[in-house]
Amino acid sequence: MRESTFSRRRFLATLGAAAAQTWPGFVAAQGVAPITAPSGAPITRAIPSTGERVPAIGLGTWLTFNVIPGTAAEAPLGQVLRTFFERGGAMVDSSPMYGFSEGVIGDLLKSSGRERLFSATKIWTVGKALGRWQLERSRGLWGVPKFDLVHIHNMLDWRAHVETLKEMKATGAVRYIGITTSHGTGHDEMERALTRERFDFAQFTYNLSDRRVEERLLPLAAERGIAVVINRPFDGGHLFSVAGKKPLPPWAREFDCENWAQFFLKFVVSHPSVTCAIPATSKVEHLRENIGALYGRLPDATLRSRMAKHFESS
Ligand SMILES: NC(=O)c1ccc[n+]([C@@H]2O[C@H](COP(=O)([O-])OP(=O)(O)OC[C@H]3O[C@@H](n4cnc5c(N)ncnc54)[C@H](OP(=O)(O)O)[C@@H]3O)[C@@H](O)[C@H]2O)c1
What we know:
By secondary structure, this protein is of the alpha/beta class. It has helices at about 10-20, 25-30, 75-85, 100-110, 130-140, 160-170, 185-195, 215-225, 240, 260-270, 285-290, 300-310; strands at about 45, 55, 90-95, 120-125, 145-150, 175-180, 200-205, 225-230, 275. Helices cover about 40% and strands about 15% of the residues. The strands form two sheets. Strands 3-4-5-6-7-8-9 form a seven-stranded parallel β-sheet. Strands 1-2 form a two-stranded antiparallel ribbon. The structure holds NADP nicotinamide-adenine-dinucleotide phosphate (NAP).
């Protein structure tokens, strides 16, 4: 069912539902003391194909986690990942395209968060055999028995890889399958893929300066029962240079928003068809701001249009 608004009433219902959710990491999460107590339960969303709930803020790793594994550069990223899990996050998104990122994630998972992790990587190559080889390599780098979610990155050779992923899902070697694009490109092809195949997830770009997916892809995902992961929720960081230097409007308090990062993220995850946004950061202080969007009220439809107008006038 699609929601037209995410009202306070609905938010309270979500809190109740969160207690009964099936996400395996959630029960373990109850024992983790947050660094500062967030108000209420994390905002979670159901994956339409199973009803399993995932926290609405995840973590991207493109560029930010691409450091040489085993070096001092990993330490701040360890803090980022640990704080992400401590504060209720679960989905970590990566890809073989992101340089050393998968190896770095694997290293850092040795010391924290494995029980909370919702692992999401991608296949990014041409041909079935290479796709299988690449996915096995990624599994080794992460050190996970299997991935929760495997996307086909940028739709590259998707007709070949979807057959592999369907077979793997049927045998339980992967839990969910998906397909990605970004930067507002390839929407016609994405529409074809989502219409032809039964993907559990689709991933594309949505943020206050790029709202093209509101027209066709978000409604299509809702109609087809596909979970939606949003990449580039800060437009690669650009949103901060557009609006982030000004004070927040006072009405941002109406949806428990303390900083611009939360303003940008709450706009994205309050769209009724969005399951999860995956902002990337290399800094723990930014992570703390971002993960704050996982708590409190979300803007309703009226506030969402006010946010968009406010941003356009910035
Ligand atoms: N086709 C695809 O499949 C595809 C394409 C693009 C992206 N993705 C996925 O989506 C993720 C997110 O996209 P993205 O990394 O392109 O862009 P993004 O998340 O929109 O923006 C990341 C940038 O924002 C900055 N930032 C983060 N939090 C901040 C805060 N609180 N205050 C100020 N600056 C902040 C980061 O710098 P700091 O490090 O300084 O915080 C970084 O430069 C990627 O990492 C990747 O996992 C997938």
